[in-house]
């Protein structure tokens, strides 16, 4: 009997990747396109199906030789029903679109649809920095902040599939920074890329002076790259935002630690590429809360798969026990 | 074949209860003692074993007729190893005492040991307000605040068994209220009975006037009962503490909702017996964060088993899938 291969689809707003993998995560073949984001919902399904067919044919592989086809999608997913509820990464609205079943109609191997953060978490768990860690969380620190949680070796999805939305936990109830969700003091707004312009503007309003030459009107230009440059230049506002982000990520990790007690927390996402001791600051904040409270120390580490966790994790989705 | 009965032990500092139940939770017989808390560790094990034997003999039941014996304990438990790490409810220290294995040596049916909040959560899940809710949390709002989490029908324990310690999540990083754990702004300190004296004292310091005649030196007398009386009397400090507690419990529930997405959150514990709309205030705070964010609304409800959830839940522990 030959080994069953894994097929994954990483469906983002910028790029759409399809990959074929051995069960140990080793790549067989991959395809990538960037001309998909403006397609209508049904056309997008067709595009994905065509790419899967192309990839399999190029390797002379039958769908029957696959464990399944996993799709990781940057959006709000109803896992049980296989719907894309919304996605802010695509110009066409989805509005509870039954993506999984429509794609299933065009393919023979069983299709699994989940959000990209869960896929990334599962990829890190099976093939990356979380290998063998049955209780772990992957946190993406990017424009937004969110987690994929692995509990006892399975993806923790919760009742409707929204588990892991730690970016919307309230970590500073008296904050004046308002998240896109409408609430004040969300972890995401106080630590992610999304909140940087708001927080930059607030600093200016409080009388702080910036040396990076970005006015309040242009604050939307403040992203992770500008922030890192500002820190390098010693700009007081950038240094403050940088330090505060690390503090709140540390709080978010500590709160997740107390809530679900993972062995390992893996950090990925664009902001984690910042230097200047960003990771160390996060760890220090976490440790300051932890004190000597526990016997078994939790580790906070960088992601192991980089930007490949999404595709590998998507491919691995059909292996999640909770599907069965 | 006759049905297998459940046997539970609720091991608290004040009382020690042992109960025998049908698989549907219906009581067969129960015993309760209150003379156990000063016993040495080994004597306590013997006491529990004797009570179990007495109860079974009184009903002419053999241990072979039990699914198992579950022990719910008010303390820090290492579930995998069956240790009591510490417990603040007993005068004798435990210090990683292997309670489960010592008890197992004296009994034939398999023994399971877990903390009381997990037992209560599992009791509410199988027999109480959470029946049929595969993703739920039970939160005890008492001297401390903690949660037992049921994920996909199983107790979520995490890596070392500490999952659910939401009382130590940081919900107000600039708070001046220090929890017994040493950190500032823990949910427990800002909403549980433990923090009431500290918060009362802080109000006096800020110049607020109390009409209930308790000075800063006697603030330790401020508990849930005093608080409720103060609210009834319209005392401005008590009203503020009451309202703040509801706000922070609401934040804690919302943060847990975003993290693990339960269908239902069940509230129990002494402070939940307070009237004057305490529950409604908690729900309103939660709803104010939720806005129209989701399709499926999470319910927040009172516990269904009252103070019986500990014993029933302990008895049910051997049924938890994750044990097998």
Question: How would you portray this structure in words?
Answer:
The structure is a homodimer of 324-residue chains. The mean pLDDT of chain A is 94. The longest helix of chain A has 25 residues, at 236-260. Chain A is globular, with a radius of gyration of 20 Å. Helices cover 33% and strands 20% of the residues of chain A. With 324 residues, chain A is an alpha/beta fold. Chain A is built from nine helices and twelve strands. Chain A starts with a strand and ends in an 8-residue tail after the last helix. In chain A, 53% of the residues are buried. Chains A and B meet through β9 and α7 of A and β9 and α7 of B.
Labels describing this entry:
homodimer, 324 residues, alpha/beta, five-stranded mixed beta sheet, 9 helices, 33% helix, globular
Strand composition percent of chain A: 15-25%
Q: How far apart, in Å, are the first and last alpha carbons of chain A?
A: 22 Å
Percentage of residues in helical conformation of chain A: 25-40%
Total beta strand runs of chain A = 12
Number of DSSP helical runs of chain A: 9
Structural class of chain A: alpha/beta
The assembly state of the depicted protein chains is homodimer
What is the C-alpha radius of gyration of chain A, as a whole number of Å? 20 Å
Order of helices and strands of chain A: EEEHEEEHEHEEEHHHHEHEH
Largest interface, per-chain counts?
A: A-B, 49 and 49 residues
Summarize this entry quickly.
Chain A has 324 residues and is α/β, with parallel strands linked by helices. The first copy, chain A, has helices at 41-58, 99-106, 116-127, 187-191, 196-205, 224-232, 236-260, 278-290, 309-316, and strands at residues 5-11, 16-21, 27-33, 66-73, 76-78, 83-86, 111-115, 136-141, 145-151, 154-155, 264-268, 299-302. The first copy, chain A, is globular, with a radius of gyration of 20 Å.
């Amino acid at each position: 009997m030959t080994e069953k291969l894994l097929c994954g689809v990483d469906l983002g707003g910028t790029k759409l990747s399809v990959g074929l993998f051995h069960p140990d995560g080793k790549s067989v073949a991959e395809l990538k396109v960037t001309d998909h984001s403006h397609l209508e919902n049904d056309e997008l399904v067709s595009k994905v199906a065509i790419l899967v067919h192309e990839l399999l044919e190029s390797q002379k592989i039958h769908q029957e030789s696959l464990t399944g086809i996993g799709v990781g999608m940057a959006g709000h997913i109803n896992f049980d029903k296989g719907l894309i509820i919304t996605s802010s990464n695509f110009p066409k609205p989805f509005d509870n679109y039954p993506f999984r079943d429509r794609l299933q109609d065009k393919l023979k191997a069983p299709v699994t649809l989940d959000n990209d953060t869960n896929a990334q978490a599962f990829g890190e768990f099976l093939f990356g920095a979380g290998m063998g860690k049955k209780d772990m969380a992957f946190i993406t620190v990017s424009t937004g902040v969110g987690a994929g949680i692995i509990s006892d070796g399975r993806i923790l999805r919760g009742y409707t599939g929204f588990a892991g939305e730690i970016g919307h936990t309230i970590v500073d109830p008296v904050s004046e920074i308002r998240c896109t969700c409408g609430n004040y003091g969300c972890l995401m707004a106080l630590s992610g890329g999304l909140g940087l312009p708001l927080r930059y503007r607030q600093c200016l309003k409080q009388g702080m002076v910036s040396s990076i030459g970005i006015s309040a009107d242009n604050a939307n230009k403040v992203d992770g790259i500008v922030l890192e440059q500002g820190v390098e230049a010693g700009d007081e506002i950038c240094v403050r935002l940088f330090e505060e982000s690390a503090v709140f990520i540390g709080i978010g990790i500590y709160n997740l630690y107390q809530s679900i007690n993972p062995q390992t927390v893996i950090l990925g996402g664009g902001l984690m590429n910042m230097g200047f001791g960003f990771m160390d600051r996060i760890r220090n904040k976490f440790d300051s809360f932890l004190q000597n409270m526990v016997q078994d120390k939790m580790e906070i580490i960088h992601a192991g798969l980089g930007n490949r966790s999404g595709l590998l994790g998507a491919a691995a989705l059909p292996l999640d026990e909770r599907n069965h």
